[in-house]
Design a protein that fits this description.
Length: 172
């Protein structure tokens, strides 16, 4: 199967969302949220020991809670900011990806590459429900994500069958 496409903002947004799903990234967010929860608990214990809560204690506790709840949004913003700092030529332009029995063959203005199936660890499908777009993707063992847009559920199913036949597991 061959996919010819131009990278657009929808694809870049999908890449950020896929990165947010990565288990290591989710774990870092959860650890930060747990640290903030521990800070809130410490504030509550101090207030109980003092017998009263001062305005500063309440403000500090609410601030920790708000930051903890907003952490996924903050993390998404940080990823988008990193993406914007990249060379713009990396984030745009025409690409051709061909998936066959040997692996994935990519072609762009930077050159061509042939990646064997052994260089990939997992696959997934990101669905942008707002724009009604499907983005099947492969995650390479080095962390790179190779993403295409499928025009139909049939194309997505064909890629799924190919990925599974190569022994790749699906990301959750």
């Amino acid at each position: 199967m061959t996919f010819d496409f131009d990278v657009d903002q929808g694809m870049l947004d999908a890449l950020v969302s896929i990165q947010m799903r990565e288990s290591g990234y989710k774990l870092r967010i959860r650890r930060f949220q747990l640290a903030l929860l521990a800070a809130i608990a410490a504030i509550v214990v101090i207030c109980l020991l003092k017998g009263k809560a001062e305005l500063f204690d309440i403000i500090l506790g609410v601030g920790c809670l708000v930051i903890g709840l907003a952490m996924p949004v903050i993390a998404r913003g940080a990823l988008k900011e990193q993406q914007q700092k990249l060379d713009p030529s990396l984030l745009q332009g025409h690409r051709t990806y061909t998936f066959d029995d040997c692996g994935v063959h990519t072609k762009s203005t930077f050159g061509e590459s042939n990646l064997e199936w052994a260089s990939f660890s997992r696959w997934g499908v990101f669905i942008d429900r707002k724009e009604l777009r499907r983005f099947p993707y492969l995650r390479a063992k080095n962390g790179m994500v190779y993403l295409v847009e499928a025009d139909s559920k049939d194309e997505t199913d064909q890629l799924r069958q190919l990925f599974e036949s190569k022994g790749l597991s699906r990301e959750q």
